[in-house]
Amino acid sequence: MRKILITGALGQIGTELTAEMRKIYGSGNVVASNRRIKEGHEQLIESGPFEIIDVNDPVALASAVDKHKINTIVNLAAILSATGEKDPQQCWNINMNGLYNVLEISREKNCMLFTPSSIAAFGPLTPKDETPQDTIQRPTTMYGVTKAAGELLCDYYFKKFGVDTRGVRFPGLISYKTLPGGGTTDYAVHIYYEALKNQEYTCFIQKGTYMDMMYMPDAISAIIDLIEADSGRLKHRNAFNVTAMSFEPEMIAASIRKFIPEFKLSYDVDPIRQEIANSWPNSLDDSAAREEWDWNPKYNLDTMTQDMLEKLRVKLDV
Ligand code: AKB
User: Fold this and answer.
1) CA distances from residue 98 to 178, 183, 192, 235, 240 in whole angstroms, order as listed
2) Domain annotation for the chain: domains and CATH numbers
3) What is the pTM of this model?
4) Is 184's C-beta closer than 6 angstroms to any atom of ligand 1?
5) 267 among known catalytic residues
């Protein structure tokens, strides 16, 4: 029986992962945790066990693992790319020192550990199109440095200590439930809110900038499917390329216009986030994930747009 601890559970991925895991594994077996309570998450907090845990506090982590007899940890506590460039020291502290603490607890208490990496683990020297699974990385953001180093550290804990570490390189994630915070791909979420509220959006990423993206239901399946995958089939345990689509801002705008024909897109490019986006791949090759654990996303750009707009219309009451 899995007993799961999710760190950073009140973030964009965590809110949806907690709800889905509670459905699959039982509410009492999924402990959500976050370093602070955030408004608007009362339902999640009340729907099962919840702990205040800062990943930089190894004592709090260990005591929650003991108290709830945890055998699986999903470490989602992280600072994203744009926020990481504003405060690289904090980014290192949470992403790297936090991961180190979680790895040590996993080693000491014999837990499986899932930690997401990101397309940010690649850099300007990486082949840009159909980026291979195993290739040159050399990221140039602090977030990317922590993600590339995190992949290696998780590989090390598997090889050296036998900790069952697993992870994927997520692209930009799009969801209607919880807003992302401080990422470079966030425009692809905000655009849907503004399309419904104002029928226009000013994009901080330049026309023609391709990045990989994925709708949240596919991201949640990726985490659960990889956690449940047969360990004997896994060769790339901690850094699977996964993607569902690659697009640039004009393409998401065109998809929105199929449902909101009057939608207008303009640009006011943020040089910091544009530089980050320029250093990332245009599109990933995710064949290793398809071969090793049957990764197969369900949503493409238009089916995601249709679902996002339907769900957001209800949420925003517009
Ligand atoms: C970000 O933009 O920082 C994240 C990511 C791609 O990891 N969404």
Assistant:
1) 23, 19, 33, 25, 21
2) 4-171+214-241 (3.40.50.720), 174-212+245-282+299-316 (3.90.25)
3) 0.97
4) yes
5) no
